[in-house]
Amino acid sequence: MNEERLDTRPIHCPYCNMPFELLVDASQGSHETWEDCPYCCAPIQLRIIVSPYDGELEDVLVGRDDEVL
To answer: Is 27 helix (H, G, I), strand (E, B) or coil?
Structure first.
């Protein structure tokens, strides 16, 4: 993990709708991962989108575990 490439994004859990700050590591490039909600412990599907040109974090898509992102 590259600490210089860490970014936080405010998101809402797609299950319980609670807001929380998500810590994102953009040094991995674009990827999919899962994070458990800190409130209801449901598995949240995340699609991290990083620019291939400058390596900057462009977007974070959030969905339920059974959704297709």
So the answer is: helix
